[in-house]
Write the C-alpha cells for this entry.
Amino acid sequence: MAVRVQATAEGGIESIPAQFVRPEHEWPLAFTTYSVNSNGCGHPACEIPVIDFSGHLVEKTLKEIASASREWGIFQIVNHGISEELIQRLQSVGEEFFRLPQEEKEAYANNPAAGELEGYGTKLAANVDGKLEWLDYYFHMLWPPSRRDFSTWPKHPPSYIEVNDEYGRKLLGVVNKLLAALSMSLGMEESAMKEAVGGENLEMEMKINYYPPCPQPELALGVEPHTDMSALTLLIPNDVPGLQVFNDGHWVSATYIPNAIIVHIGDQLEILSNGRYKSVLHRSVVSKDRVRMSWPVFCTPPLDTVVGPMKELIDEKKAGSPFFKSKTYGEFKHCKINKLPQ
C-alpha cells in the first residue's frame, strides 16, 4: 500500500521525510514571490487578473480575457453563475471524504501502474531525483455522463455523486462560455474552440487535491512547477493560499477570492491558438498549520481528437509558423507523461 501524505503528516512528525525535501533551487523562497495582498507588492502587474463574467460576452470582457490569456495564461472569474451554496456543498463532500478513516479511503485506492487512474491516490515520483509532492488526491471523470464509472466515486458521504453531478452540469455552461470568449477574442466564430476540443464530446476530469499541514513548508512543494496538458482547467480553492504562477521572472501568489473560479489556459489551447494564448506554468506551496484543498476540473479533448494550430491562426509569413505539430491528444498526453519531445 502506498504511503499517504495525510497519514504521514498526522503521525506527529517534526521534520519531513527526505523524499519530500526539494532541491534548494526549488525551495519556495528561491525566487521573490509577489502578491498584492500578502507580500506588499503594490503594483497591479503583480496581481492575477480578475474578470467579471456576468451577463453577455461584451467587448470589454473579451478584451480582458484575451489580455489575461496572452500575458498570464490564468485569470479568476467572478459572477460566473455557479451559486455559493453549490460551491460550499462541493467542498463539503470533498472535505468529508478526506476525514474518513484511512482504511475506508484505501477502499477507493487507484493503481496507476495498472492504468487504473480513477480513485484515491498519492503521486509517485516522476522526476529524475525521485522527490515527492506533499499531496494526496482523488480523481475521477466528471463529464460526459457516459464516461463516468460510479464504482470509482466515493460512496461516503452519500451526497457526493449528486453534488458532483450538479456541479459538472453547471460548470459545463461556464466552460462553453469561456471557449466562446476565447474563440471570439481571436476573431473566430464562437463555436470554433469548442469544436476543436471535441465539441459535445469534450471531457471534464475532477481532481480533489489535499495538502496536509507540513512541518517544514519552506522545503516542500505541494505540486512541482508544470503546465496543464488540458485545454482549460477550472479550479476552486479553499481559503488557504498556495497556488503560485510564474510571470515575468517571479512566482506570483493567487489571492483568495471567495467563490471565484481560477481559469488556467492549458497546453491544448496554447497549441490551438498557435502560441497566442499562454499555457501557464504554476506550482503549489503548502502551509505549516492548515490543510489546503483545491478542486481543479481539467477540460480535455477525447484521446483520438487531433489537436494542432487552427488554420485561421497560422501566419505563413512568420518564420516557424505553425509553431506546434498536430497530433492526437492521446499522443500528446503520452509524450508529456513520459517526458518525451512533442
Remarks:
- Residues 36-44 have pLDDT under 50 and may be disordered.
- The chain has eight helices and 15 strands.
- Residues 160-184 form the longest helix (25 residues).
